[in-house]
Structure formats: structure tokens, C-alpha cells
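hey so u asked for the seq, here:
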Amino acid sequence: MIAHPQPQFMTPQEYLDWEEQQPLKYEYINGEVLAMTGGTIPHNDIALNLASALKNHLRGKGCKVQMADVKVGVSQNGPFYYPDVMVSCDPRDQRAQRVMYHPCLIVEVLSPSTEAFDRGKKFRHYRQIETLKEYVLIDADRMNVECYRINEKGKWELTAYSPEASEVELTSIDFACPITLLYEDVVFPEDNSDEISDN
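ran it, C-alpha cells below
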């Protein structure tokens, strides 16, 4: 999803009350409201593939799997984002109606327009969530998954998964699957940059 800034500035509560009345989804960062626009079909396919697999894996285990229509709050005062996929196993989120504050796993499917933000500022904000154990970035243009995990020393470590990897592992929820499952039915954009011209 792509966020576009709107000129209005609001308090966190004003934003939460106002957004409920809007036909579009909006993220919220430091008083600024950002309108969300639609993603690509490959982007949606990847998020749906992962969310479906996680839902099956976590059924009956007291965890909630959410997709792009559910907000995560870094704190009660924001920022507020719409992750592509999110899992919370925290009892405090089980009855949440508008916002989840205690996820253990957040996943963003990358697009060229949001990749720098997802890797930078958004990840810095997400790291402030005390319950977060893993942050996953999935490339929508090629088979590539990056998983940032917090270790026992409180440091974030990167594990990258490519088509050569046997399985993608998400240790926060004891889940593993072939990388090909995440990309099932995904048609990658054509890349003609590697073709050699006959001229």
C-alpha cells in the first residue's frame, strides 16, 4: 500500500475518531495523516498467501492473524500503520476493535514506492513495540524474503531467504514454509533489462 500525505494535522484521538468515518484508510505519523492507496495484484497475492498459511498454522492457539485492514499502534499516541500481515498472540489484543498494540510479527510486502520507508522510518517505529519479535520484508518483484529477528541481547539480526533456501522460518510463531508458498500464483513484472538487443 502507498501512503500519500494529507494537509490536516490531528491528535491521535481525533485521527482515530475521524478515520472511522472515512471511505479510505489513513495512517498517522506525528500528527500527519497519510491516505492509503491500493497495491498491485502480486502484492495482494503474497500477503494473502502468507496470511492464509498463518491462519491455518495458528488456528486454536490463541493468536490473531490480520491483514491490511487492521491498524497497529506503536503506542496509544501513534504512529498508526496498516501492516500487510500482522500476528498477535497477546491477550490484550484478543478483544481489540480498532487497533492492535501488541503484535509479535509484522510483515510488509515491498513495493518500489514504499521500500525505503518500510526499511527505514517504519522499521524504527516498529522496533519500539515491546512485544515485536520479528519484522519481515517480502519482495513483490522477485523471490526474496528478509526476516529481522530480535535476539536474546535485544539486537535485531537479519536472516535472508532466497529461492535456494529450503524454508522460510518465523520463529516468533514456530512457523516454517517453502518460499514458493508465499509466491504461489504470483506473476512477476516483466523485466526486459537483461535482454540483449539484436541491434
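Residues 141 and 193 are 14 Å apart (CA to CA). The longest strand covers residues 2-9.
lmk if thats what u needed
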